[in-house]
Write a structure and sequence with these properties.
heterotrimer; A alpha/beta (about 425); B alpha/beta (about 900); C alpha+beta (about 180); B: about 900 residues; alpha/beta; Ubiquitin-like (UB roll); Rossmann fold; seven-stranded mixed β-sheet; 38 strands; C: alpha+beta; Glutaredoxin; elongated; binds flavin mononucleotide
Chain lengths: ~425, ~900, ~180
C-alpha cells in the first residue's frame, strides 16, 4: 500500500495511465468495493476517515455529505459536482492530479456519487486547463467503455453519468454556489447560504460540491481502509495532502506529503531551499487568500489546526514565497489587483472596496501614496472581513492585506518616504 | 409573534419575516438598498448591517445583514452599535466611490434614496480620490432616461424588470466594479412596466423622461392622492403639478390594489391633460369661442328644450349623476355600446352574487389556479397582468415552505422552484404577454374558445362534456387539464371581461358558480370592465336605457337634442348610426376634456376638467368607489361636468356625493369615500404643496411682484398651500409620501401599519356593492353561426395597452409607443394572400383598408383588427367592421403611415418573405 | 415597404442575426444533450462559436440567443462576465499572460514589457498583422514553472527575455512591416 495514494501513478514524463494500466495498478478497487456496501456504510467510512475538504475551507467531507436529504420522501434527483476551477493564486495542485491521473478522480467521483445518490455528476473545469480537459475526456470515455460509468455500475443497479464542463475563466466560479450558477448557464454570482447546496443546489436539487483533491482521496480510503488512511498523517489530520511551493526556491513544485510535515521540510527539503542570493522573508502558506507567515514559523507542522493557531490557514497547501529582494507591497498589490478584477460585482464591500485598495497600491508603487491611503487600507481589512461580504472572496483578500500591513509596516512607510518603490 | 430587542427596546414582530422588514415595520430607521418590500431580500448591498448578540452575556456580538437574517424569538439586536454604524458608513462610502457629484442636475435629487441613506449612514466626507468608473448610457426610448454613472449596483432594476415583471431586454452585464445594467443595445425598453424602474432604482439611473423634459423637484411639486384613469383597475397614483401643468405620475401605495407598481399606460398616459387635444374653451356650432358666461347662458337656453343625456364610463360618478338629475332618469342613457352594456349587466350581477368574490389585485396574487377566458389582460387592465405573473409563484412558495426557505429569500425561492408554476390557463385568440408564464394556452377563434369554456363548464357539472364534432384533441386536452387544475386549487380564480364579450363573461360566471358549488364556498371571479368608471356609470342606469334606445329616441320621438358627457359616440356604435342620430337633432351639447369626433359635431362644446383640475369618484371593477382629489386650481375656462350641468347640489363635489348617496340606493354608502370628518382636524387642511416648496412667493413675480393670495379651496380637505398638517402626523390624506430623513418613495413604510400593510391614513374609498343575491346559471352557450364561409376571415377586434384608451392615447409619450390601426393574421394566411407586414389589406365590400402585421400566433381563419385611436386620425370604427370578411392585398404599400405598426407589446411579429403577387 | 416608417417609434435596433453553421449547431446540440435545460449551455455555445469564429460578434450573439431561446440581453450578461469570451475581434493567437502572484514574484513584469516591446502591443491590443492579441490572465495554475503564459492552447513556461525574443522573432518582422 502506497504512502502516496494520490500521486503513486503520476509520472509526468510518461503521461497518465490508461484505464487498463490504472486497473492493473489496483485502480477502481475502491469503487468496486462500494458495490457491496449500502451508501450509509460508505458515508460512515468517509466520516470515520476524518477526510476534510481540500478546496480551502477544510470542512469534514462526510459531514457535508450527510446533509443531503435521503430517503424516499426526498428529492430523487441529486448532483455531484467536482470543483476543478483551481484559480487561487499560487495554486497548482488539482492540475497535477487531473493531468497526471484522471482515473483517480473518476473513481473518487463514483464513490461520492454513489454515497449521496447522485446519478449525474459534473466536473467543473477551468477553461485554461486544456490538457486536463483532454485527459479527463479520454479517461471518461474509457471508463464508459469499460462500464465503469453509465448504467448498472459494478452490478449495483446504480447509474452514473459524468459531464465534463469547461468554464471560461473566472476565479469566483470556484466559490461553490457561484459555480452552480455558472453551471446553470447564469452569471457566476454566488448564492445566499442558507439554503446550502446540499439541500437546494444545482437547478434547485440537492448537490454536493467537492474539490478534485478531496475526491481523489476516496479510492484509497475505500480500497485500503480507514485504519490505513489514518496511519498516514499526524497532528489531527489524516491522509496525505498536496503541498506546493512557488517563488524563488531551487526546485519549485508540488508533492504529496502526509499531514504534519513541517513547513521547513517542504521548503528546504522538497523545494531545495532558497535560490542563491535570496533569503526567505515571508510566505503565504495556502494560496493567495491566506495570511502571511514568516521564517520563524518554519518548524510548524502542516495541519489545519497548527497553521490556524498561527492566525493563517492551511487552505490549498500551496505556499507562495516572498524573498528579500522582492517588494512585499508590490506582492500584496499584485494580489489585490487579482481580487479586484475577479470580484463578481454582487456585494458592495468587495465590488467597490477592492478597486479602491488596488488603486491605492498602484499609487503607492509609483510614490503617489499618502498616510491617509494606508489608513484606508487598514479600514478595508475590517470592512471586507468575514461575514460582511456575501461570499468569502473579499475576506480572502483581506488575509494577505491585513497580515501584510502589520508585517511590512516599515516597507509601506518607505514607499511614502521614498516617493517610489524602494525595491526598484 | 416573536419578541425581539433592538437597542434595548422590546418589540413584537412577525417571525415569518426578516429583521430588516420588521425593524422598518416598527418605524426604526435602518438603511438599505437592495431589499424591496415586495421583492424580498438578496443581500447584495450590505447596507442593512446590524449587530446581533447571542444572549445577554454576549457583549461583542456579530454583524449580520438584517435583510438576510430571519426573525428569531428573543433575538437581541443593535442598530446603534458603533461597529454596525461604522460598517454601514463604509458601505455608503464604497457605493459613493464612483458616484458622480451631480445631485444638482440629477432628476432624482430631493427624492433620492441614495441621498437619504448617505445622510442616514453618516458618510459626509469623500476620502476616495482615485479615478471613478464611468459608463456609456443607452437611449432607452420615450419613457426612461439612462445615466449609468449613478448606478450603485443594487440589482433592483433587473430583479424588478426580469424576475418580477417578466421583462427580457434588460440585464446585468460585465462584472466587478464595471457591472452594467442595460439592454443588449440601445433601444426602447419593451416591458409595459418599465416606468417602475424610475421608482425601483434607488438613485438616478432610470428616471422619468417625460418628466425630465419639464422638470421640477419633488419638493416643488404639488401633489394630491389621485386614481388612475387608464383602465378599470383603479390604481392609486400621486400626480405632481407645478405652474398649472401636470409633470408626472408616480405610484401611490395601496395595499390591496397597485402596491408599489403602476403600468406604463397609467404612469405616462396622464400627460394627455397637458396636450393640445384638450378642450380649453367653450365653442358654439360654428366653432366660435365662447366665454364661460356666454357658454353658461347658451347652455341654460338649450336646456329649456327636451334633451336626453348620454352618460359615460370615463366620466366620474358625480358627472353621470348630475346628468341623470338634469335630464331625469328616464332620459339618461348608457354611454356604452349596446354589447358592452349587456356585458356590464353581467358584471354588475356578478358583483352582487354571493357565490362569487371579486378579488383585489393582492388577492389575485395569491390565486393558486387561474383561468382567463378571452380577455387580453395586459392590454385591457395591465396592472392585473403583473399580479397574475405573481400568482403563478404560489406553487414556488409551497416548495420553498417545504424546504424551509423563507418566502423573502428571493433568489433561493426562485432557484428551488425552477419552472414550477401554479396553473395559469389562458384561453385566448392569439399570443398574450402572459404566455411565458402560462401553464396552458388554448389559442383559437373566439367561438372556439367559448365552446371550450362551455365544455369545461359541463365537465365541472359532472357530465361528460359535449365536444363539437371537429373539436381537436388539443382543445379537449386543454379543457381536461384546466378542469383538473381548477378542481385541485385551494383558491381558483376565473377571469374574463367586457372586451372578451358577454358570452365569455357568462361562461366565466357559470364556471365560477359551479366551482363555488363544488367547493361550498364562494369562488373568485373577475369580470373586467373596460374603463375607469364603467361600473359607476352602469350603476346609475335604468336597465332599458341602452345607447341603441337613445338613438331610437332621437330618431323617432322627436326629442329636441342630447347632451353627451365625456364620450365619443363613434367609439360606441357604427358610424352611420351615430351620424344619423347626430344629424337628426339641432341641439347636441358635448361636455368633454378632449376634442373628439363627436365634439366636432356638437352645437355647443363645453370644456370639462380632467382628474387633475377637479376631484372625482371612480368605481373600479370590484365596485370599489375611490375619491381622486383635485390637484391643481381649476382654470377659469374649465369646469367639472357637474358644474356645467349646474344641477342642485353641484356647488362642490362633496355636496354632490352626499346628495348621490341619499338619493340613489346603490350609492347609499358613497359618502364614506370622503375623508371622514372625525379624522380631520376641523378647519385644518392638508397642504398640496410640500413644506419645502421653493419659490412659492416668486412663482408669478414675472407678472406681478406682489405676492398673490393663495387659491382657496373650500371644496376639499386639501389646500393649495404649503401650510397645514404635516403629512406624517394625523394625516388622513396622503398626497405624496415624505418623512423626516426619508425623502424618497421609500418613506412609504412610515405610512404603513407594517411593511406591505394597509396605510395608517386609510384610503378614501368604499365598497359600493353588497352581495345579496344568488343568481341562476346563464343558459348554456351554443355557437350562433355555423362555420363561416371558408374564404372569409373572422374579424376580431383587439386592444392595445398603448392606444386603446381614449385619454392616454392623447398623451405624447404614450403616442410614441402607439401603432396605427392594423390587421393581423398568421404566416399561412400571409403566404396565401401574398402579403407581408406593411402591406395594405382590404376588407372586401367594406372599403376599409388596413396595414398588415403578420403575427405568429393568430389562429387560422382569424384576422385580428386593432382599430387604432381617433387621437391619431388613423383609426377605424370597430362597430363598422363585419363579423367576417374576405381579404385581399392591395397593390400598394400603405402610404398613410402615421405611427407605423411596430410597437406591439406582444411581439409575435414574424417576417415573411413573399414574392409579390397573390398566389390565390 | 418603407422600413424607416415601420421603425419610426422604436429607437434604432440595428444588429442583425446570422445563421449558425452546421458545425456549430451540431456541437451546441451535443452540449444540450448533456444538460437538463438547454438554457444552461449559453456559455458553451459562446465558446463553441468563438472556437469557430475567433470571437463572438453581435450577430453571433443574436444567433445563439435565438437558437437557445435565451434573451440576448441575458446572454450578453453571461458573455461579458467571463474572461475568456471575446466580444471583440482578437488575433489568430491569443496570448494569455499570467500576471498573478507567483509569476509576479518571478519577474513577469519584465517579460510582459519584453512582449510589448517586441510585438508593439499592450494588454487588450492586437498586432497589426492580426497574429497576436495580448491578454492578462489570472493565475494559470502552473506556478512552479513561473513565469508562464499560454498561447492558443499551448503553455509556455519558465519564461525569460531571450525566450520571448526567439519566440516572437518572426512576428517582430511582421510588426516592423506593419508599423511603417
Ligand atoms: C472565492 C472562492 C474561490 C474558490 N475557489 C475554489 C477552487 O478553485 N477550487 C475549489 O476546490 N474550491 C474553491 N473554493 C472553495 C469552494 O467554495 C468549496 O468550499 C469547495 O469546493 C468545497 O470542496 P471541499 O469540501 O472538497 O473542499 C473557493 C471559495 C471561494 C470563496
Ligand atoms: S465578496 Fe461579494 S462581490 Fe465579492 S465575489 Fe463574493 S459576492 Fe461577489
Ligand atoms: S438591504 Fe440588506 S443587503 Fe441590501
Amino acid at each position: 500500500m502506497s504512502d502516496r495514494p494520490l500521486t503513486k501513478n503520476i509520472d509526468l514524463a510518461r503521461g497518465p495511465l490508461s484505464l487498463r494500466d490504472y486497473e492493473a495498478a489496483g485502480g477502481y478497487r475502491g469503487a468496486k468495493s462500494v458495490a457491496g456496501l449500502h451508501p450509509n456504510e460508505v458515508l460512515e467510512r468517509v466520516k470515520e476517515s476524518g477526510l476534510k475538504g481540500r478546496g480551502g475551507a477544510g470542512f469534514p467531507t462526510g459531514l457535508k455529505w450527510s446533509f443531503v436529504p435521503q430517503g424516499p420522501e426526498s428529492e430523487q434527483q441529486k448532483y455531484l459536482v467536482v470543483n476543478a476551477d483551481e484559480m487561487e493564486p499560487g495554486t497548482f495542485k488539482d492540475r497535477l492530479l487531473m493531468e497526471g491521473d484522471p482515473h483517480l478522480l473518476i473513481e473518487g467521483m463514483i464513490i461520492a456519487a454513489y454515497t449521496i445518490g447522485a446519478n449525474k455528476a459534473f466536473i467543473f473545469l477551468r477553461g485554461e486547463y486544456v490538457l486536463a480537459e483532454k485527459r479527463l475526456a479520454r479517461a471518461i470515455a474509457e471508463a464508459k467503455e469499460a462500464g465503469h460509468l453509465g448504467t448498472n455500475l459494478f452490478g449495483t443497479g446504480y447509474d452514473l453519468d459524468i459531464v465534463l464542463h469547461t468554464s471560461a475563466g473566472r476565479y469566483i466560479c470556484g466559490e461553490e454556489t457561484a459555480l452552480l450558477n455558472a453551471l446553470e448557464g447564469k452569471r457566476a454570482n454566488p448564492r445566499a447560504k442558507p439554503p446550502f447546496p446540499q439541500v437546494s443546489g444545482l437547478w434547485g436539487k440537492p448537490t454536493i460540491v467537492n474539490n478534485v483533491e478531496t475526491l481523489c482521496n476516496l479510492p484509497g480510503i475505500l480500497a485500503n481502509g480507514v485504519e490505513w488512511y489514518q496511519s498516514l498523517g499526524s497532528g489531527g489530520d489524516y491522509g496525505t495532502k498536496m503541498f506546493g511551493v512557488s517563488g524563488r526556491v531551487k526546485k519549485p513544485g508540488c508533492w504529496e506529503l502526509p499531514f504534519g510535515v513541517s513547513i521547513r521540510e517542504v521548503i528546504e527539503g522538497h523545494a531545495g531551499g532558497m535560490q542563491e542570493g535570496y533569503s526567505l522573508k515571508a510566505f503565504l502558506p495556502g494560496g493567495g487568500s491566506t495570511d502571511f507567515l514568516t521564517p520563524e514559523h518554519l518548524d510548524t507542522p502542516l495541519t489545519y489546526s497548527a497553521i490556524g493557531e498561527l492566525g493563517s490557514r492551511l487552505a490549498t497547501g500551496t505556499m507562495i514565497l516572498l524573498d528579500d529582494k522582492t517588494c512585499p507591497v508590490g506582492m500584496i498589490g499584485n494580489l489585490m489587483r487579482f481580487f479586484a478584477h475577479e470580484s463578481c460585482g454582487f456585494c458592495t464591500p468587495c465590488r467597490d472596496g477592492l478597486p479602491w485598495v488596488d488603486a491605492i497600491f498602484r499609487d503607492l508603487e509609483c510614490g503617489k501614496g499618502s498616510a491617509k491611503d494606508i489608513a484606508i487600507l487598514h479600514d478595508h481589512v475590517g470592512y471586507m472581513g468575514p461575514g460582511k461580504t456575501f461570499c468569502a472572496l473579499a475576506p480572502g483578500a483581506t488575509a494577505p492585506l491585513g497580515s501584510g500591513l502589520k508585517l511590512f509596516a516599515e516597507e509601506f512607510e518607505q514607499h511614502l518616504v521614498h516617493g517610489a518603490c524602494p525595491y526598484l | 409573534m416573536a419578541k425581539i430587542t433592538v437597542d434595548g427596546q422590546c418589540y413584537e414582530v412577525d417571525p415569518a419575516n426578516n429583521l430588516l422588514q420588521e425593524c422598518l415595520s416598527q418605524g426604526l430607521d435602518l438603511p438599505y438598498f437592495c431589499w424591496h418590500p415586495c421583492m424580498g431580500s438578496v443581500g447584495a448591498c450590505r447596507q442593512c448591517a446590524v449587530k446581533q448578540y447571542r444572549d445577554e452575556d454576549d457583549k461583542t456580538g456579530t454583524l449580520v445583514m438584517a435583510c438576510m437574517t430571519p426573525v428569531t424569538d428573543g433575538a437581541i439586536l443593535s442598530i446603534e452599535d458603533d461597529q454596525a454604524k461604522a460598517f454601514r458608513a463604509g458601505v455608503i462610502e464604497g457605493l459613493m466611490t464612483s458616484h458622480p457629484h451631480d445631485c444638482p442636475v440629477c432628476e432624482e435629487g430631493g427624492e433620492c434614496h441614495l441621498q437619504d441613506m448617505t445622510l442616514m449612514s453618516g458618510h459626509n466626507y469623500r476620502r476616495f480620490d482615485k479615478r471613478k468608473v464611468t459608463h456609456r448610457n443607452q437611449d432607452l426610448g420615450p419613457f426612461l432616461n439612462h445615466e449609468m454613472n449613478r448606478c450603485i449596483t443594487c440589482y433592483r432594476c433587473v430583479r424588478f424588470y426580469n424576475d418580477y415583471a417578466g421583462g427580457k431586454d434588460l440585464s446585468a452585464q460585465a462584472s466587478h466594479h464595471h457591472t452594467y445594467f442595460g439592454r443588449f443595445e440601445a433601444g426602447t425598453l419593451e416591458s409595459e412596466f418599465s416606468g417602475n424602474l424610475a421608482e425601483v432604482c434607488p438613485t438616478g439611473v432610470f428616471t422619468d423622461k417625460p418628466f425630465s423634459e419639464h422638470y421640477a423637484r419633488k419638493w416643488d411639486l404639488e401633489a394630491a392622492p389621485a386614481v388612475c384613469t387608464g383602465c378599470a383597475i383603479g390604481c392609486n397614483t400621486s400626480p405632481g403639478e407645478r405652474y398649472g401643468s401636470l409633470r408626472r405620475i408616480v405610484n401611490r401605495y395601496h395595499s390591496d390594489i397597485n402596491g408599489y407598481f403602476l403600468c406604463d399606460r397609467g404612469r405616462f398616459g396622464a400627460h394627455y391633460v397637458n396636450s393640445d387635444f384638450r378642450l380649453r374653451s367653450a365653442k358654439d356650432s360654428s366653432g366660435m369661442t365662447l366665454s364661460s358666461e356666454e357658454a353658461s347662458i347658451a347652455f341654460a337656453r338649450d336646456t329649456q328644450k327636451r334633451l336626453i343625456g348620454i352618460g359615460s364610463p370615463r366620466a366620474s360618478v358625480e358627472a353621470n349623476f348630475a346628468l341623470r338629475r338634469l335630464v331625469g332618469e328616464d332620459n339618461f342613457y348608457a354611454g356604452f355600446s349596446d354589447s358592452d352594456y349587456e356585458a356590464m349587466q353581467v358584471l354588475l350581477n356578478s358583483l352582487q352574487d354571493q357565490d362569487f368574490n371579486c378579488p383585489s389585485l393582492k388577492q389575485v396574487e395569491s390565486a393558486d389556479a387561474v383561468l382567463i377566458i378571452g380577455e387580453d389582460v395586459t392590454n385591457t387592465a395591465p396592472r392585473m397582468a403583473l399580479s397574475l405573473r405573481q400568482s403563478v409563484r404560489v406553487a414556488a412558495y409551497e416548495l420553498a415552505d417545504k424546504a424551509r426557505i423563507p418566502q423573502w429569500q428571493d433568489a433561493a425561492v426562485r432557484e428551488i422552484a425552477q419552472e414550477t408554476r401554479s396553473p395559469l390557463c389562458i384561453f385566448a385568440t392569439g399570443a398574450t404577454r402572459l404566455d411565458d408564464v402560462a401553464t396552458l394556452r388554448l389559442n383559437a377563434s373566439r367561438e372556439d374558445l367559448l365552446e371550450a369554456a362551455e365544455a369545461l363548464f359541463v365537465r365541472l357539472s359532472g357530465d361528460s362534456p359535449h365536444y363539437r364534432e371537429g373539436v381537436t384533441g388539443r382543445t379537449m386536452q386543454a379543457v381536461e387539464e384546466t378542469y383538473a387544475a381548477l378542481l385541485a386549487a385551494k383558491k381558483p380564480l376565473i377571469i374574463s371581461g367586457v372586451h372578451a364579450g358577454v358570452e365569455a363573461m357568462r361562461l366565466a360566471s357559470n364556471i365560477a358558480k359551479r366551482l363555488a358549488k363544488i367547493r361550498e364556498s364562494s369562488c373568485d371571479l373577475v369580470l373586467l370592465a373596460a374603463e375607469h368608471n364603467s361600473v359607476g356609470h352602469a350603476l346609475l342606469l335604468e336597465e332599458k336605457n341602452s345607447l341603441g334606445s337613445a338613438f331610437n329616441r332621437l330618431k323617432d320621438e322627436g326629442c329636441d337634442g342630447l347632451i353627451v358627457i365625456e364620450n365619443d359616440l363613434y367609439n360606441r356604435a357604427p358610424t352611420s348610426i351615430v351620424q344619423a342620430a347626430l344629424k337628426s337633432v339641432d341641439t347636441c351639447i358635448v361636455i368633454d376634456q378632449i376634442e373628439t369626433p363627436t365634439a366636432r359635431h356638437a352645437s355647443l362644446v363645453l370644456p370639462s376638467t380632467s382628474f387633475v383640475e377637479s376631484a372625482n369618484v371612480l368605481v373600479n371593477y370590484e365596485g370599489r368607489a375611490q375619491l381622486s382629489f383635485q390637484l391643481s386650481p381649476c382654470p377659469e375656462s374649465l369646469k367639472p361636468v357637474e358644474r356645467w350641468l349646474n344641477v342642485e347640489g353641484s356647488e362642490s363635489t362633496e355636496s354632490l356625493i352626499r346628495r348621490c348617496s341619499t338619493e340613489l340606493a346603490p350609492f347609499s354608502e358613497l359618502d364614506k369615500c370622503l375623508p371622514h370628518p372625525s379624522s380631520v382636524v376641523p378647519g385644518a387642511k392638508f397642504p398640496r404643496m410640500s413644506h419645502r416648496a421653493s419659490g412659492r412667493t416668486a412663482m408669478n413675480a414675472d407678472r406681478n411682484v406682489h405676492e398673490g393670495k393663495q387659491t382657496l379651496d373650500d371644496n376639499s380637505v386639501m389646500s393649495f398651500s404649503m401650510e397645514g398638517i404635516q403629512p406624517l402626523r394625523d394625516a388622513t390624506v396622503l398626497g405624496s409620501s415624505w418623512a423626516p430623513q426619508w425623502n424618497s418613495n421609500q418613506s412609504i413604510s412610515k405610512f404603513q401599519n407594517e411593511v406591505n400593510g394597509a396605510l395608517k391614513q386609510r384610503n378614501s374609498e368604499i365598497h359600493l356593492i353588497t352581495r345579496n343575491s344568488h343568481l341562476d346559471y346563464y343558459p348554456s352557450y351554443s355557437r350562433t353561426e355555423g362555420q363561416s364561409d371558408e374564404h372569409k376571415y373572422l374579424l376580431q377586434a383587439v386592444q392595445q395597452i398603448f392606444g386603446s384608451d381614449e385619454l392616454s392615447a392623447r398623451s405624447k409619450p404614450v403616442q410614441s409607443r402607439m401603432s396605427d390601426c392594423y390587421i393581423a393574421f398568421n404566416v399561412e394566411s400571409a403566404k396565401q394572400l401574398g402579403a407581408t407586414t406593411g402591406d395594405s389589406i382590404e376588407l372586401q365590400d367594406t372599403g376599409v383598408e388596413l396595414t398588415l402585421v403578420v403575427r405568429a400566433d393568430v389562429p387560422d381563419g382569424v384576422a385580428l383588427v386593432y382599430p387604432g385611436s381617433s387621437a391619431t386620425g388613423l383609426s377605424v370604427n370597430r362597430f363598422d367592421l363585419p363579423k367576417a370578411a374576405q381579404l385581399s392585398r392591395l397593390d400598394k404599400a400603405n402610404s398613410e403611415y402615421g405611427l407605423g405598426v411596430s410597437s406591439l407589446v406582444v411581439d409575435d411579429r414574424v417576417d415573411v418573405e413573399v414574392t409579390t403577387g397573390a398566389i390565390l | 415597404m418603407s422600413e424607416n416608417k415601420l421603425m419610426k417609434n422604436s429607437v434604432i435596433t440595428t444588429s442583425l442575426s446570422r445563421e449558425l453553421t452546421a458545425a456549430e449547431i451540431s456541437e451546441i446540440e451535443h452540449e444540450i444533450s448533456l444538460y437538463p435545460d438547454k438554457r444552461a449551455v449559453g456559455l458553451e455555445a459562446l465558446k463553441i462559436v468563438q472556437r469557430h469564429q475567433g470571437w463572438v460578434s453581435d450577430e453571433s450573439m443574436r444567433a445563439i440567443s435565438n437558437y437557445l431561446d435565451i434573451p440576448v440581453a441575458d446572454l450578453e450578461g453571461v458573455a461579458t462576465f467571463f474572461n475568456l469570451i471575446y466580444r471583440r475581434p482578437v488575433g489568430k493567437k491569443v496570448i494569455l499572460f499570467c500576471d498573478s502572484v507567483s509569476c509576479w514574484v518571478m519577474g513577469c513584469d519584465r517579460i510582459k514589457q519584453k512582449i510589448t516591446d517586441q510585438l508593439g502591443i499592450d494588454y487588450g491590443e492586437t498586432t497589426s498583422d492580426g497574429e497576436y492579441t495580448l491578454i492578462p490572465v489570472p493565475c494559470l495554475g502552473d506556478c512552479d514553472k513561473a513565469p508562464v503564459m499560454m498561447i492558443g492552447e499551448e503553455m509556455h513556461r519558465h519564461l525569460d527575455e531571450e525566450g520571448i525574443e526567439s519566440l516572437f522573432r518572426n512576428a517582430a518582422v511582421n510588426k516592423s512591416g506593419g508599423d511603417s
